[in-house]
Amino acid sequence: MPANTDQFYAALPVNNMPLGDLLIQDDLFSDVPADWHVVITDIRSSTQAVLKGRHENVNLVATGSIVSVLNIAFGMNVTIPFFFGGDGATFIMPPTIIDRVMQALALYKVNTLDNFSFDLRTGTIPVQEIYAKGHHLHIAKFSSSDSFYIPIVLGNGLNYAEQTIKGDDYLLSTHQPQQEELDLTGMQCRWDRIAPPANKEEVVTLLVVATNGARQSDAFQKVMNKMDVLYGSPQKRQPISVGKLKFNSTFSRLSQEMRARLGKIKMFSLLQDWITSLYGYIYFHTQSGKTYLKRLVEMSDTLVIDGKINTVISGTAKQRAQLTSFLDELEAAGEIIYGLHVSSASIMSCYVRDLEDGHIHFVDGSEGGYTQAARMLKAKLRAV
Questions:
Q1: What is the pLDDT of residue 251?
Q2: pTM
């Protein structure tokens, strides 16, 4: 391992194969360097916020935490794995950027409390400490398309980090907020609720964890392979389609986004954003705009594997009944525990650094899909 591990993740090869095959090929996974750090952001009491109808604000704040971190990493020429969770995010990063990231998140925490009355927990734990406790972090890159890849993490290291940071003792960051203004350049949340594709009936948000007695990779392979059988390829179960996208650039939506980005409303900037968004209606009818929308669908982040399966898919009620029956069987056999939420639409927020390849789109089920599925999962875990 080189002395400077900044480029560890960037240098990993991208694996183009069925995900079920990748999950059981241990030799294609690498250990995260021990000098890296896990960082977690999380909105405290997000379930209550979702139940009060504030799910879009929850997603907005979670997206902002990702954008603030990715802009720092991009500026320092570092590529890091990250995982969107609906009400927060998880990152794995090298030591060279950890202090800047935590100072930025400390300021973002203040802005979030002031503007949305959300308590954003931010915490970090060294990977070395995770390893010392006997936990593992194995990582690989996976791609099911030519333009987008995601990190796949096996092992329970991130679950341990989450429990430690969000547990009873709240191992939260003590970093002081940075002095300069937050850089949330590229943060956009301008799409309305997205109905399922034309031939689909519903959106399913699913969380799956392997039990202690099961081999994680084998259990996950069974779930992903079954989804392929029931729903088809990742492209066929994609909840986002160009035909169902509706641009939302109301002053209310733009104001929320600006409060997350700047911590306040600047009327001149708000007017500029609104005028720019009007151009979007024209742009999306050009050839370049149509290409962007096609790429948007391809680059929608609908699958996260961070020691558990987190995914948003679309399909029919019959398909979901078959999937649920299969998951119940695995759960009864003691291999997995799962949480599932069904909704009528998806919610999407975006990070757009440029209109070619520099954009990522974070997807959640409407009405707080991930948060609601986590609520079901946690209830089951408490009953174990």
A1: 43
A2: 0.86
